[in-house]
Amino acid sequence: MSGIWGNKIKISIFGESHGRAVGINIDGLKAGILLDIDYIKNEMRRRAPGDNEFSTPRKEKDEFVILSGFFEGRTTGAPLCAIIYNDDKKTEDYEKLKNTMRPSHADYTGYVKYNGFNDYRGGGHFSGRLTAPLVFAGAICKQILKAMGITIVSHIISIGEKKDKPFDSVNIEEDVLKIMENKDFPVLDQQSGFLMKEVIAGAKGQKDSVGGVVETAVLGIGPGIGEPFFDSVESILAHLIFSIPGVKGLEFGAGFDISRMHGSKANDEYYLDNGLVRTYSNNNGGILGGITDGMPIIFRTAFKPTPSIGRPQRTIDIETRKNVEIEIRGRHDPCIVPRAVPVVEAVTAIALLELITRSESKCI
Amino acid sequence: MSGIWGNKIKISIFGESHGRAVGINIDGLKAGILLDIDYIKNEMRRRAPGDNEFSTPRKEKDEFVILSGFFEGRTTGAPLCAIIYNDDKKTEDYEKLKNTMRPSHADYTGYVKYNGFNDYRGGGHFSGRLTAPLVFAGAICKQILKAMGITIVSHIISIGEKKDKPFDSVNIEEDVLKIMENKDFPVLDQQSGFLMKEVIAGAKGQKDSVGGVVETAVLGIGPGIGEPFFDSVESILAHLIFSIPGVKGLEFGAGFDISRMHGSKANDEYYLDNGLVRTYSNNNGGILGGITDGMPIIFRTAFKPTPSIGRPQRTIDIETRKNVEIEIRGRHDPCIVPRAVPVVEAVTAIALLELITRSESKCI
Amino acid sequence: MSGIWGNKIKISIFGESHGRAVGINIDGLKAGILLDIDYIKNEMRRRAPGDNEFSTPRKEKDEFVILSGFFEGRTTGAPLCAIIYNDDKKTEDYEKLKNTMRPSHADYTGYVKYNGFNDYRGGGHFSGRLTAPLVFAGAICKQILKAMGITIVSHIISIGEKKDKPFDSVNIEEDVLKIMENKDFPVLDQQSGFLMKEVIAGAKGQKDSVGGVVETAVLGIGPGIGEPFFDSVESILAHLIFSIPGVKGLEFGAGFDISRMHGSKANDEYYLDNGLVRTYSNNNGGILGGITDGMPIIFRTAFKPTPSIGRPQRTIDIETRKNVEIEIRGRHDPCIVPRAVPVVEAVTAIALLELITRSESKCI
Amino acid sequence: MSGIWGNKIKISIFGESHGRAVGINIDGLKAGILLDIDYIKNEMRRRAPGDNEFSTPRKEKDEFVILSGFFEGRTTGAPLCAIIYNDDKKTEDYEKLKNTMRPSHADYTGYVKYNGFNDYRGGGHFSGRLTAPLVFAGAICKQILKAMGITIVSHIISIGEKKDKPFDSVNIEEDVLKIMENKDFPVLDQQSGFLMKEVIAGAKGQKDSVGGVVETAVLGIGPGIGEPFFDSVESILAHLIFSIPGVKGLEFGAGFDISRMHGSKANDEYYLDNGLVRTYSNNNGGILGGITDGMPIIFRTAFKPTPSIGRPQRTIDIETRKNVEIEIRGRHDPCIVPRAVPVVEAVTAIALLELITRSESKCI
Q1: pLDDT tens across D334-355, in order?
Q2: How close A364 comes to chain D (CA, Å)?
Q3: Quick check: D114 and A31 CB within 8 A?
Q4: What is the C-alpha separation between A10 and A63, in angstroms, rounded?
Q5: DSSP state of C81
Q6: Nearest to A103 among B234, B240, B270 (CB)
């Protein structure tokens, strides 16, 4: 079941880092949706490895081919499957490492789970490359949400110890959105962004890597979306967010900070604003009882540092069962956070479209 | 779909705070499991409102009746349904509040979602009382896991600003487990526990409430459990953890702290310990690529303060559409965290049994 | 997973013939539906064992208790759970048979599957009594469908070798519907019904039993409901129909007869009837490519004879592993078909509401 | 949800008759299974249109490309996706028919469901071509079942009015299996086969088509597989069988005939045969209470005649909303039954592997 998710919008992913292709089959899209292919390409580009200091020089073109469910520019209602061929393979880089388990990668856990039959090259099915089809699917869902007036926006709120200012959780301005959308390194405060980039460059210089946190807001979503208990907005979002490789924490609204508050401060009091129900604060991140309350959905996703680092590390050889040392050469991002931004947005879009579609159809 | 979860171990909950009963139907339990009814009763007691300073004086007996799937002391393999009758109803307390939306409760979101037809009494289906059947199901799953050598243990790591020391993530001693199990207010450091209780008493004295964080460890789980991507251990656990009312954050291993680390510190290096694969650190919380690596699973769950507080709050009347004020009288916990501990453990047990059962049955 | 079904309208059944109660939890009903309790009671009565010659003298009252999801006469949107207590237990009748496997019952297969831990009394979870909660859920779904203008009607088309005339598949008249609804033994041709009853009486007189076929029509369902392939109307209906104990065959439209036709006769040619698309014939039973075409849905369900017969039969003792003989005493229907009619209609209603609800919510 | 099925062995299909490719993603296969590619190719060939008198001259090569989940000759445990490119397109044949609804095809129902946005060419996603990926997946499942000692075998039991003799439901000999496996037109009685082929040739000569019935047996499956109620063997098999285009009926064991029997004849009495539990007859088709009893599973699937016939037919133009006439030219099978045999076997294999895998993993 590793690769299938959803109830109304079902996605089914496949592929390995060094296999023929990675891809995704999307089931449940309404017929007749005009797809903006350039928009999808731009989303793919945001995730693709670039040529700046933050990302691997590996040049994946990430060009997708739609195999089905798309006819004369529109969705047909049938499953829409897209694949992305793998073409820049340096398989031999990885074969040497076959039995040397890279620390904090899935080499060891994949070996155990699949009895050594997993495709180990470049992480195989565990590779971050599998996020490319997620971004493809997310780009379609984002278009559909946008047509409903729903926008998803993110910024990098921290890299290592360096922090950006947070979103104003009750009032995110329109022009902020537009600025964020066209940035490869989205931050609210440019000076903070400069310091964050320095942290990444520093890590890279030391053959090291660094983690960070992405803050995401969903604007324009009305109240009443989601379910109590097992299909709460938090549950559904968390399910997909934690399926992104490298995610280790997730908090909604004030998150861990709310646990340190008293109720009198934490509670989001209501008021009517020209007939519209709003809250003075938004410590619950727009979700109460698992259901949206009409305020922006706010959450933060914590990413660990890229596990691939050039420094020597202690590990084991799984075949000889001996303690050994490893130095990972290859080409790796010193920080995956900038490329993770569109991935977080993509799964957010998929999750929300799923929830909205479910909410639409409670039977009469 | 709000109330059904799972694939191998399917649970289906129902009930409202002031209806006839709350309950759960559990599908997928193997036939022939001898149930320790006293153990289940004790788990229910841990969650039930008590008579100490931390919990509501409302006396729910939480006595369960097993309706099916249980015969001559053992599971039959057929669905096991249990119900808990509601018997201490003060419905009139709530009727007065019918149209006055309690801040940070699900009154408003439930009203919108269900077009005003939801059972509003005591939060209705959104009530924390629905966690009683979860604890029932969790107690069965914990027994089954225990027979496999898997233990789940938690402590309160913070209340407000007061903190307990964290678990030693690579080495949790057996006697720690036993001590935690019999405590109503489980902490590792007794002095910290004393300070936390003071915080709760202080909040109560001010007609206020306070939040906190629960830290949980799963011991004895072998490597290879879980799936890449959508059914990662983190995804499945997060799905259920975020379905607990009041949860606003979740982090695995070093969690948000790992985002501030460099890879050279964050990576969990391997070594062989008498043939057993272990890691020197456990910043990934026992999970890599969504799959267990054999180290303890460690995670922390952030709870918001109880939204019901005695102080006046600003809100709206949903019928008259006017700004009003509310003072919640009733009887409420100043802090739900102590009673949430067995709930976190229960859903953890359900999630892990689901994952283990899935892993067992990859087909040949 | 034995007891949970559905995607939008999720049902979860539980109970054994001689346990405390049987019941069902229904998830996914819209809030605010006014339930006609008398209608539900009447549907339950149609399935309940009566005092005529066709059914067991066992007097089950089949009185249901709604535990949740129902408030002030209406659904709340939360899971609606109802239970029916078991009160007329003659457990000792069954204990004697514990190890003697009744032919064509599930005694042996249940024993193997559950390693002998199943509740064997009266068939346990395999009992036809579990169809009572299905009829409860179906009665709610039928009400909802009726409000949409959709009617489900059935008649007994054969008992043993005796046949009723079939429905006119392109034109079922309104008054036929009304006549069927109030009958315990619904047939189109009264003389045929008389002969069928004679067959049943004859079987009863010989301590034997007899099977039969139910024909069902769904009227008023528009075109466009259903999905290609795995969620075709036929697939979804078949899934639930074959979950009814005793069903061994199912055919849509002309069914097995269509396999004997040439295309030129089998094809349902279209014409416009005052702007409405209709077909001259209805050999496809209102379904093409898994999707409704607006003509009546027509299908026939074949039931085997009640396996419980008073005659001596050869079988085995599962404990002593010896060939033995069995004479089933107890009280049993000589023919389950009349009581099966409301069960077929109930699962049809559940399946169609599921499909209609899915169709409503293809996302934009 | 049209294209996703399963719980343990999840399949997700995609594609249209005249799009780029059709394909399937299979999730849940155990790692390390050695695939016999030649066996898969042979199964594909059985379904592919041939050059004999029964099938369309359209030459689809049906060459599959495995994109993922397959490494060094074995499954990796990750999703296995395979595609089959479409290369022999005569799109213009179909464009002319765009608005002329072919009787008994899914043109009209697809048009309504997808608001006219469906890919209409060659039936689009409704095309029988989508059964090619099903046969691919089935061939893998058949291999896995074969390694467990489970064999699936079918023959054509009738074409039009001409009948083959049925399987001996209690004793199917090994050499019968081998003979069936290598036949393009599998029948038990060669003379019957000759008459059936004449019926097909006759229909073809009259620009007509004809239907038929396939009988299938599953041998070597032990008792205890399946579930009561919603996941009965009959329910799961029926779900997939009725998803095959053209299926209109399905019966297990004696099927519709059992409805005409008395219990004393219908009941399958048990006996011990050298310690093995067997039944003297097999009117229940190897399934009791939804669970296998160890006897062969026997069922029959009724196919309608190919809807595409060369004769003039009455229909409507969906754009002009007028009654019109249609003569379908193109190239079409006069009888799909021979090519349907491997499709029935494929979905049977998928369904059984799903059920067996579920049964293996009831948790302890």
Answers
A1: 999 999 999 999 999 999 999 9
A2: 20
A3: yes
A4: 22
A5: E
A6: B270
Q: Of A251, A256, A263, A322, whose CA–CA distance to A287 is shortest? A: A251
In this predicted structure, the answer to whether residue A58 has a pLDDT above a threshold of 60 is: no
Which residues sit opposite B300 in a β-bridge? B215, B251
CA A219 → CA A223, A241, C285, distances in Å?
11, 18, 47
Residue B325 and residue A270 in contact, taking contact as beta carbons nearer than 8 Å: no
Please judge whether C360 and A360 are an interchain contact, meaning their C-beta atoms are less than 8 angstroms apart. Answer: yes
Phi/psi of residue D354, nearest 5 degrees = -55, -50
Sequence-distant (≥ 6) Cβ neighbours of residue D67 within 8 angstroms: A14, A15, A19, A20, A21, A23, A83, D23, D81, D82, D83
- The encoded tokens of residue C176 equal 């036929």
CB atoms D248 and C285 under 8 Å: yes
- Determine how many CB atoms are found less than 10 A away from the CB of residue B168: 14
Put simply, the answer to whether A118 touches D19 (Cβ < 8 Å) is: no
Q: What is the pTM of this model?
A: 0.96
d(CA D43, CA D45): 5
* Paired tokens of D343: 């499709």
Three-class SS state of C250: strand
C-alpha A351/C-alpha D326 separation (Å) is: 45
Nearest to D32 among A3, A16, A117 (CB): A117
Domain count, chain A: 1
Q: Give the ipTM of the model, two decimals please.
A: 0.96
The verdict on a CB contact (< 8 Å) between C81 and B15 is yes
- How do residues D91-114 score in pLDDT, each as one tens digit? 666 777 799 999 999 999 999 999
Residue A256 contacts residue B157 (beta carbons within 8 Å): no
User: Under an 8 A CB cutoff, do A362 and C357 touch?
Assistant: yes
Range of the domain at C248: 4-363
Q: What is the nearest CA distance from B129 to chain A, expressed in angstroms?
A: 12
d(CA B81, CA C23): 9
- Report the CATH number that the domain containing residue D189 is assigned in CATH: 3.60.150.10
Q: Are A189 and A164 spatial neighbours (Cβ–Cβ below 8 Å)?
A: yes
pLDDT in tens, A4-42: 999 889 999 999 999 999 999 999 999 999 999 999 999
Q: Give me the DSSP letters along B58-88.
A: ------EEE-SSEETTEE-SS-EEEEEE---
Cβ of A360 within 8 Å of Cβ of C357? The answer is no
Inter-chain CB pairs, A–D, below 8 Å: 181
User: Any alpha helices (H) in chain B, and if so which ranges?
Assistant: 37-47, 91-95, 107-113, 131-147, 174-181, 190-205, 233-241, 263-266, 337-360
Interface test with D, best of A119, A126, A243 (most D CBs within 10 A): A119
| Probe site for chain D from A18, A76, A358 (most D CB atoms < 10 A) | A76
Chain C interface, mutation test: which of B10, B16, B68, B112, most C Cβ atoms within 10 Å? B68
- Chain C hits for D250, CB-CB cut-off 8 Å, are 238, 249-251
* Spatial separation of the C-alpha atoms in residues B118 and D78, rounded to whole Å: 43
B360 to D361: CB separation less than 8 angstroms, yes or no: yes
Give chains near C: 3+ CB pairs under 8 A: A, B, D
As a whole number of angstroms, the distance between CA C22 and CA C16 comes to: 6
CA nearest to C34, candidates C77, C65, C80, C75? C75
Which chains lie within 8 Å of chain A at 3 or more CB pairs, if any? B, C, D
In this prediction, residues D25-29 reach a mean pLDDT of 96
Q: What's the pLDDT tens digit per position in C216-234? A: 999 999 999 999 999 999 9
Nearest CB to C31 within list B20, B21, B114: B114
Chain D residues with CB under 8 Å of C24 CB are none
Q: Are D134 and D346 in contact (CB under 8 A)?
A: yes
